[in-house]
Design a protein that fits this description.
four-stranded mixed sheet; alpha/beta; about 25% strand
C-alpha cells in the first residue's frame, strides 16, 4: 500500500461517511467519519484516507507516522538497488612515473569506493613491444598495491598490443587475489552499454 504525502488524515477528512479498515486489516464497514475517528483515537492511532475516489472513500486505522517512516526506508533501499554499476578505465604506459602512478592508484580506489568496476589497460607502442615484461611487472605492482582494496575479476591478459585487467569492489573474503588465475583466460571485459568511461594518462 502506497500513500501520497498529501493524503488527508484524522480531522482533515471532511466527507460525512467512510468505509473503514481496522489496523489488523479487518473491514469494519461504512460509518460516520466522526465515529471512525473516535475508534482510531481510542487506539492511539490515526485515521488515514487511502482511497479518496471511492464512494464512500476508504480509510484505514494505522500509525501514520510509523508508516511514513517505513515507506521512506523502502524507497531509499529501492533507489540503492536501481543504481547501475559502471566500468571506468585507467590507462597506464610502461614509463609511468611515481607521481602519475600514485595518482592513478588514488583514482582507482575512488572508483572502487563508489561501487564501480575499473578496467586497467596498458598499450604497447613501437619499441615497447619488445619489452612487454615491463608492462606485466607494472600491472603486478598495481595489483599488489591494491590487493586490500579490490577483487581481481579478470587477471592481466595480453590482447593484441595491449595488456588488460578488470578489478571490482572486494566482497568480504571471497574476492580473487591477484595471484589467482582465472579459468578460461577470457579477455578483459568492455564497459557495459551506457556506462561511463574515464581515461586517465596517455592513450
Amino acid at each position: 500500500m502506497r500513500i501520497a504525502s498529501f493524503t488527508r488524515i484524522n480531522r482533515n477528512i471532511r466527507v460525512p461517511q467512510v468505509r473503514v479498515i481496522d489496523s489488523t486489516g479487518e473491514m469494519l464497514g461504512v460509518m460516520a467519519t466522526s465515529a471512525a475517528l473516535r475508534i482510531a483515537e481510542q487506539k492511539g492511532l490515526d485515521l488515514v484516507e487511502i482511497s479518496p475516489n471511492a464512494v464512500p472513500s476508504v480509510c484505514k486505522i494505522m500509525d501514520y507516522g510509523k508508516f511514513r517512516y517505513e515507506e521512506s526506508i523502502r524507497e531509499k533501499n529501492a533507489r540503492k538497488a536501481q543504481k547501475v554499476q559502471q566500468v571506468k578505465e585507467i590507462k597506464f604506459h610502461p614509463g609511468t612515473d611515481t607521481a602519475d602512478y600514485e595518482h592513478k592508484l588514488k583514482q582507482i580506489r575512488k572508483f572502487i569506493e563508489a561501487g564501480n568496476k575499473v578496467k586497467l589497460t596498458l598499450q604497447f607502442r613501437g619499441r615497447e613491444n619488445a619489452h612487454r615484461e615491463i608492462g606485466e611487472e607494472l600491472f603486478q605492482r598495481v595489483l599488489k598495491d591494491l590487493e586490500n582494496d579490490v577483487a581481481v575479476e579478470q587477471p592481466p591478459k595480453q590482447v593484441g598490443r595491449a595488456l588488460g585487467c578488470l578489478v571490482g569492489p572486494r566482497r568480504g573474503k571471497g574476492g580473487m587475489r591477484p595471484s589467482q588465475p582465472q579459468a578460461g583466460g577470457q579477455a578483459p571485459a568492455q564497459p557495459a552499454e551506457g556506462g561511463i568511461r574515464i581515461t586517465i594518462g596517455k592513450a
